[in-house]
């Protein structure tokens, strides 16, 4: 089902699959897993098996029912490029995307190798924004190069939860970078200088910067609610969005 999103950089979520398995450091306190267990306890049928991976073909046509141009985040409750999702199901998702050119679709994955191999044999729909998670140097940074070589109109990074200083980044071919801290009871803190370093590199290399949230820890290093910490970095909000038409760099 599609639902309005509380995610600051999108409008609606569309989950043709739900559930996932942990892959890297950013998965440790997965918000989707926590929410899935809550929905399971509430008795929602789709979450009867909790966070176990499940294909939901009955949801495929939902974007076709919406005529108003909408930005969709695809699979907020899963990873579309999970190794156990068949290529033919991915083909069905892409067919819906191609059939609804009035919408834009944001697809974020930690499985960069599957992402690259899938689109090595298929064109990327023109209304798809492709992104990879970049939470740390070990797991996240290698994903950037895989993304850079895929000819999507918009390529983006989600550095959330940002777990450490990412060091020097090559942002060539990257149009948009989202940065945020971790939320939840077990959130790991994000140092302000880590976010500032990414912002500076975006400015120097021509990528658009978006600061999503501090999460469970504020800029002052104190633990408090996400809402109390706010979304300001150095006294202002950074709400940059990429241009809808961007040059393709491969």
Automatic annotation (TrEMBL):
InterPro entries: DUF5131. It comes from the Bacteria. It holds the Pfam family DUF5131. This is Phage Gp37/Gp68 family protein. The lineage of its organism: Bacteria, Pseudomonadati, Pseudomonadota, Gammaproteobacteria, Lysobacterales.
């Amino acid at each position: 089902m599609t639902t309005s999103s509380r995610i600051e950089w999108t409008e609606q979520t569309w989950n043709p699959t739900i559930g996932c398995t942990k892959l890297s450091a950013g998965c440790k306190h997965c918000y989707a897993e926590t929410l899935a267990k809550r929905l399971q306890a509430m008795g929602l049928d789709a979450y009867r098996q909790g966070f176990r991976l499940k294909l939901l073909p009955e949801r495929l046509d939902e974007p076709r029912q919406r005529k108003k141009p909408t930005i969709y985040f695809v699979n907020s409750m899963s990873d579309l490029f999970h190794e156990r999702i068949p290529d033919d199901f991915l083909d069905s998702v892409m067919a819906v995307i191609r059939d609804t050119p009035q919408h834009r679709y944001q697809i974020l994955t930690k499985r960069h190798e599957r992402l690259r191999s899938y689109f090595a044999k298929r064109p990327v729909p023109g209304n798809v924004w492709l992104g990879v998670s970049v939470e740390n140097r070990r797991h996240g940074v290698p994903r950037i190069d895989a993304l850079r070589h895929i000819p999507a109109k918009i390529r983006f990074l989600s550095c959330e939860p940002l777990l450490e200083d990412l060091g020097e980044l090559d942002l060539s071919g990257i149009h948009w970078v989202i940065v945020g801290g971790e939320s939840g009871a077990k959130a790991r803190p994000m140092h302000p200088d880590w976010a500032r370093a990414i912002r500076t590199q975006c400015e120097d290399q021509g990528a658009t910067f978006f600061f999503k949230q501090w999460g469970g820890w504020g800029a002052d290093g104190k633990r408090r609610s996400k809402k109390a910490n706010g979304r300001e970095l150095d006294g202002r909000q950074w709400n940059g969005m990429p241009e809808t038409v961007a040059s393709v760099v491969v």
